[in-house]
Specification:
By secondary structure, the chain is an all-alpha fold. The chain is built from 15 helices and two strands.
């Protein structure tokens, strides 16, 4: 009973089984499991290493099961793959071994953390085992299986460490689900021609490449808007908005890339996205006192900020040879901006405290500069982005 297809013996069998461990595929779910444990520790004030290790082990074996079963079906059942390091018997042995380890880890989660964490973790094995050939033939389950498993990994580990769900962790799971759905749709589009030839119904095959890409971008946008909405309503700390800016920039670059490059960019961007979310949820960097308070400039504070951002605007406009066009736009915009500014100050919508006190035409001097700096900065950024696209 050979485990490896080409060689017999313990060492070749171990190598063949180990070949089914793919870090790119398996690291995200395990990392998200540990993230849930860390967030639970943030809420409870104590970290349970045993629970965290048991849950991470369960998630690892669930994903290992998915990869092993997928390879078995694609090579031995469908004949899609050209090669496989394991024999059919070896695949079955690996699946049984992974199932036993998963069951043992799940039992450990149940005994140490209770039913809630175990109940949310158990479906991850089912998602892995039934991915092929049952779930991967439907565009919804084929695309949603991996993202759903990651969302469950987060929720299961958090409940195992905390005891119950919170709005913040539910929101985080939903955000990750939306973003990963978008990445998965783009990733599947890499195999569009092959999947279509074997009548495999991925989202790209069902909707077509263009509409599938639009669907993926909609999922990514929903995830980013979800973070912004949760931050605006106080469910997430304000600092999580930084993750939106970071991943949004990556998504904007990936938008023009082919599916292969876009997937590479977005997967790496997703790691940064999750890391920034975790940092913001843990440290809440924008909730405490400011690390740098430029209010020490007193009445010249507002003016100082305009000098800094005005210099940046001028540099961008100079680089883009757009000073003349920016000046024309500012001249046209200025009267409207002036009336709007005068009115909002007059009715008391906002007040400016750290200013020089110099007024010109019934509004502060700094507001006149503001109406020049902001349009200049916008046009400078626009010209810079346009140059990078050409």
């Amino acid at each position: 009973m050979a485990i490896a297809r080409r060689q017999s013996g313990t060492l070749p069998a171990a190598r063949a089984l180990a070949s089914q461990i793919h870090p790119v595929f398996m690291l995200p779910p395990v990392a998200v499991s540990l993230t849930g444990s860390l967030l639970a520790a943030r809420e409870t004030g104590s970290f349970g290493p045993t629970i965290a290790a048991l849950h991470a082990t369960a998630i690892f074996t669930a994903v290992y099961t998915a990869h092993l079963k997928d390879g078995y079906v694609d090579f031995f059942v469908r004949g899609e793959d050209d090669d496989h390091p394991l024999s059919a018997t070896g695949c079955r042995v690996g699946l049984v071994a992974a199932g036993v380890v998963f069951l043992a880890a799940l039992t450990g989660v149940f005994l140490t953390a209770g039913l809630g964490g175990a109940a949310l973790t158990a479906p991850t094995w089912a998602l892995g085992y039934f991915h092929a050939p049952q779930l991967d033939t439907n565009p919804v389950t084929a695309t949603g299986g991996y993202p759903a498993g990651i969302a469950l990994a987060l929720l299961g580990s958090f409940v195992a460490g905390h005891g119950s769900l919170t709005p913040a962790v539910l929101g985080l799971a939903g955000v990750l689900l939306a973003v990963l759905l978008g990445i998965k749709v783009i990733d599947d589009a890499q195999d569009y021609a092959y999947d279509r030839s074997i009548e495999k119904r991925t989202v790209a095959v069902v909707l077509g490449r263009s509409r599938a890409r639009q669907t993926a971008e909609g999922c990514l946008a929903a995830g980013l808007l979800g973070v912004a909405g949760l931050a605006a309503t106080g469910v997430f700390p304000t600092g999580t908005i930084l993750a939106v800016f970071a991943f949004g920039g990556v998504a904007a670059i990936a938008r023009r890339a082919d599916p292969r490059l876009a997937t590479m960019l977005l997967v790496r961007g997703a790691y940064v996205f999750l890391a920034l979310l975790l940092i913001a949820l843990w440290y809440r960097p924008m909730a405490g006192p400011l690390p740098i308070d430029i209010g020490v400039f007193g009445p010249y504070t507002y003016l100082a900020t305009e000098v800094v951002f005005g210099a940046l605007a001028l540099a961008l406009l100079w680089r883009g040879e757009a000073i003349a066009s920016a000046a024309r736009s500012i001249v046209v915009l200025y009267p409207l901006a002036y009336v709007w500014d005068w009115y909002t100050l007059e009715v008391g919508i906002f007040a400016i405290e750290l200013r020089t006190g110099i007024d010109l035409l019934a509004i502060p001097l700094e507001e006149h500069l503001f109406m020049i700096v902001v349009p200049g900065l916008v046009i400078g950024i626009h010209e810079t982005l346009r140059d990078s696209d050409t």
